[in-house]
Write a structure and sequence with these properties.
The chain is α/β, with parallel strands linked by helices. It has one domain: HUPs (Rossmann fold, 3-Layer(aba) Sandwich), CATH 3.40.50.620. It is about 40% helix and about 15% strand. It has a 6-stranded parallel beta sheet, with helices on both faces. β2, α2 and β3 form a beta-alpha-beta unit. α2 runs antiparallel to α10 and α4 runs parallel beside α6. It is globular and about 50 Å long. The model has no long low-confidence stretch (mean pLDDT about 95). Bound molecules: NADP nicotinamide-adenine-dinucleotide phosphate (NAP). NADP nicotinamide-adenine-dinucleotide phosphate binds next to β1, α1, β4, α5 and α9.
């Protein structure tokens, strides 16, 4: 496989914003496949309640089922301990041997990348795509990353995606309040959330 993108996130729940970002990156960077990797225990979310990995994996599988270019990996869910991205990227290199590897995630998360494990090594192993929501202040990202050497900085690419106005936090809030979520995520995901009474 020559060009691969990893879509990393908690996906609690996965929604159309995530799917659009993944497809846009696949298109922009000529990726052969996009590998969705739900985080088991995001390192920055110790103590924060999130849905079980089993549910997040199930809805991620339902969401990508209709796209042949999308795959789901249980790499982080199967690995004990916190889900450090550098470990995941190393494992993907070993498993798939891609010529080029991208790691896609939200720009809000990338803002904190300087605190991530082995950030310099991480940025030499893959290129980051930082998906920005409408209204995101890109100057803030530049300021946070100012200590990175130029050759690492060029490996962080911001990508503006309008539909990313959809957010998992808002979807969970809507479910709690009994508001509709129908056009925010794929129908099988909506049904799964309802059947398993998630986010109530
Ligand atoms: P988060 O804090 O839940 O999300 C931060 C922001 O990014 C939210 O606005 C979120 O929106 C958005 N987002 C998350 N994943 C996205 C994606 N794939 N595409 C577009 N937007 C996305 O972040 P998270 O989901 O827990 O973590 C993101 C990734 O970074 C995971 O793979 C995690 O393991 C990794 N991470 C690694 C380290 C480390 O190695 N030390 C530390 C932190 C995070 P939604 O809520 O709508 O998704």
């Amino acid at each position: 496989m020559s060009t691969l993108a990893i879509m990393g996130g908690t996906f609690d729940p996965i929604h159309y914003g995530h799917l659009l970002v993944a497809d846009q990156v696949r298109h922009n960077f000529n990726c052969d496949k996009v590998l969705f990797i739900p985080a088991a225990r995001p390192p920055h979310k110790e103590g924060v309640p999130i849905s079980s990995a089993r549910h997040r994996l199930a809805i991620t599988r339902l969401a990508v089922a209709s796209n042949d270019a999308f795959m789901v990996s249980t790499l982080e869910i199967d690995r004990p301990g916190p889900s450090y991205t550098v470990d995941t990227v190393k494992a993907v290199h070993q498993l798939y041997r891609p010529e080029k590897l991208y790691f896609i995630t939200g720009a809000d998360g990338v803002l904190e990348i300087m605190t991530w494990k082995d950030v310099n090594q991480l940025l030499s192993l893959c290129c980051f795509v930082a998906a920005t929501r409408p209204g995101f202040d890109i100057g803030n990202l530049k300021e946070k990353l100012k200590d990175l050497p130029e050759e690492k900085l060029k490996n962080i690419i911001p990508l503006s995606v309008p539909a990313l106005d959809i957010s998992s936090t808002d979807i969970r809030r809507r479910v709690r309040k009994g508001e509709p979520i129908k056009y925010l995520l794929p129908e099988p995901v909506e049904k799964y959330i309802k059947n398993h009474r998630l986010y109530l």
